[in-house]
Amino acid sequence: MHDDKKSVLLVAMPFAGIMIPSIQLPVLEGYCRERGITIETCHLYLKAAELYGLQNYHYLIYPPNDSYTAQMVFSRYVFPDHWKNNKDKFQEFFHQHSVQNSDTPQFSFDEYVHQTDVFYQWILDHVDWRFFDIIGFTLNYGQLLPSLSIAKKIKESDPEKKIVFGGSRTVETLGMNVLRAFEYVDFIVSGDGEDALFRLASDFENYKSIPQLMYKNRDEVIWNKSDIVVDLNMIPIPSYDQFYQDLSTTSVDVQQYYQYYGRLPVEISRGCWWNQCTFCNLNIQHRCYREKRISRILQEIQWLSERYHMMNFQLIGNTLPKTEYRTLFKKLKNLGRDYSFFAEARAGQLTSDDYLLMKEAGFTMIQTGIESFSQNYLQKMNKGVRVIDNIAVLKFCKENGIKNNYNLLVRYPNEETIDFNETKKIVQMLKGYLDVPQLCELRVMHGSCIQRHPEQFNIERLEHTLIDRIMYPLEFLKEEISFVYDFNRKIPSTDNPWESLVEEWKKERKMFELEGITRQTTIDRLVFYFVDGGSFIKIFDKRDKQNIRIVVLNELERAVFLACVDVVSLQQLLHRFTNLPEFELIAMLQSFEQNGLMFVEDDYYLCLPLRFSVSEHTAIRTECQLNVSV
Ligand code: SF4
Question: Which residue CA neighbors atom 5 of ligand 1 most closely?
């Protein structure tokens, strides 16, 4: 059996970003190598960034453009006739839909096509497939056409090579359809790839019995569906040696970019313990939620830092650990290193103290799944959080100088005017002092609840997107290989002016930030905050410049106000202030609310101003950081 082992080359194509190495490649590499498989990896997106030019590459993949459309030119290698017959449409799409930034040099369609050719040819000239039996491609959002283009070429020159695809772009029925549509793809792994790839390489003859594997049996596509999942603690710590090796052969600007902005990924979990948001398809690959042990996460961070002299990490997981996040923060803090972390998080979980701890642990940036400030909209999304939870997160982040890169998700098929109006009302309260979201238009993703049950979301029918209709011949689209869909509404909805709402917010923040630069004292740069005098509280509210207010709360009001620093229910407050008659407490809370100092949702309360502590200078730090970025 030993002699029958097959060697493996794993490839990650563009249009992956270069700020974070592909984690799939080293994870699979480590797992298979530890078990005696000859395996190499190839991070080809780095070379693509060099050959397109770093600025052009970023222009293609980052908003307002994206990596899904960036792959379009690879259609010419996968469907050469289709390209020939439709080149004008590709060009027209590029001109009409790719938004050029004023601060980057113009990148023409001809250059785009030419550089794609240069890159494609570079791969054919430099990557030596001959030494490997199995060539595996990891596929995310924008990697299908680039991977197909190379897989096709390999198979043409050597039909004996086995082509394997895996990743979110080819899971479950989508994977089966891709396997059916492209004869040069031999296998697809749906779900955890580690064991399936190892078994394919070590026991190829018995591939029909490998769990998670899809294969062809004459005209049939078979999927060995399985619930088996890998224990994340048993995977070796991923080695990024090959990534750094590939990086060292790219241009100086790509290397420098990574040295400045790069982060190493550290996987903390797979799947999502909530897994109910109606727009989300992030868990189709990992339906079962699993976490890595905190001790193992720490070991991994320290090992990676020592080996690659890296201080910046991205925790890979859809959320923070479900229950042990506090342990994670404490242990990271206790390491006493200047690490910085980025992580994705959910609202409604952590308290203000947790955010303080988070900051002390080194979290400088997070992305919270805020999505909306409308209760009605959040219910359609089935986010499982309230508006009050979302506001609390943004307040805590601001107090602690943690940048929150959050989105407002809009244009659901069943969006209503109330969704906009509710949001608008909240934005009036927040726009003077809390950070602005990015606007994100809903895309119906394969595997999401909306895609599976369109009729529940006011969708008459799902349609192929314009870019898919351009990139793929119709006969391939009919095989249902699309990852993203457009939709037709049953009942037309009004087009709410989300863009102008967010633009106005942006303008307001910018104005406050610019003004802040001219202020002599740091505290004067804050817009809406309170200071605690022990027996009283002083609140400074400069959100409305025509009506700047200073509110002083007495001792009792202070106590109630401070009890609402975190989201708290009326019941909890009544329990805490037993000496205070209920009507008095309610009247006090109402007066806070009427004065714009408190947010109330269904008998839950949250005070709005930022806490400013002179000794910690926490809120101030945020404003200073923003000033620097202006
Ligand atoms: S959006 Fe985030 S929280 Fe919601 S299901 Fe997806 S991963 Fe989970």
Answer: 275
Q: Give the binding-site residues of ligand 1, using a 6 Å CB cut-off.
A: 272, 274-277, 280, 282, 318-319, 346, 369
**What DSSP string describes 530-557?**
EEE-SS-EEEEE-SSTTS-EEEEE-HHH
To test ligand 1's pocket by mutation, which of 168, 270, 272, 283 has the most ligand atoms within 8 angstroms of CB? 272
Distance 319 CA to ligand 1 centre (A): 8
Average the pLDDT over 454-461 and give the result.
97
Position 459 pLDDT exceeds 70: yes
| Atom 6 of ligand 1: nearest residue by CA position | 280
Does the pLDDT at position 99 exceed 90? no
CA-to-CA separations, 622 to 175, 243, 397, 433, 629, in angstroms, rounded:
45, 34, 9, 11, 11
Distance CA 34, CA 52 (A): 36
> Residues 448-467: what's their mean pLDDT?
97
What is d(CA 189, CA 335) in angstroms, rounded to the nearest whole number?
Answer: 38
What value, to the nearest 5°, has the Cα angle with vertex 45 and ends 474 and 237? 115
Residue 354: other Cβ atoms inside 10 A: 17
Q: How far is the CA of 382 from the centre of ligand 1 (A)?
A: 10
pLDDT for 617 = 52
Measured CA to CA in angstroms, residue 456 lies from 99, 441, 452 at distances of 33, 19, 9
Ligand 1 centroid distance, CA of 16 (Å): 21
Q: Is pLDDT at 623 greater than 70 in this prediction?
A: no
- Please give the average per-residue pLDDT across 490-515, as a whole number: 93
Token pair 């407490």: residue:
585
- Exposure string for 515-539, b = 16+ CB within 10 A, e = fewer: ebeeeeebeebbbbbbbbeeeebeb
Q: Which two tokens stand for residue 189?
A: 């792994």
Instruction: State in Å: Cα 322 to ligand 1 middle.
Output: 13
- Please check whether residue 612 is in contact with residue 531, taking contact to mean a CB–CB distance below 8 angstroms: yes
194-250 pLDDT tens trace: 999 999 999 999 999 999 999 999 889 999 999 899 999 999 999 999 999 999 999
Spacing, Cα 431 to ligand 1 middle (Å) = 26
Atom of ligand 1 nearest to the CA of 383: 4
* Residue 370 clears pLDDT 50, i.e. is over it: yes
Measured distance CA(538)–CA(557) in Å, rounded: 11
User: In ligand 1, which atom is closest to the CA atom of 281?
Assistant: 6
Q: pTM for the whole thing?
A: 0.94
CA angle 278, 283, 289 (to 5 degrees): 115
Query: What's the sign of the alpha-carbon dihedral 597, 602, 605, 607?
Result: negative
Across 339-365, average pLDDT: 97
Which residue's CA lies nearest to atom 7 of ligand 1? 318
277 CA → ligand 1 middle, Å: 6
Lowest mean pLDDT among 99-103, 153-157, 229-233: 99-103
Rg of the chain over Cα atoms, rounded to whole angstroms, equals 26
Instruction: Count Cβ neighbours within 10 Å for each residue of 238-260 and write b for 16 or more, e otherwise.
Output: bbbebbbebbeebeeebbebbee
Position 489 scores a pLDDT of 97
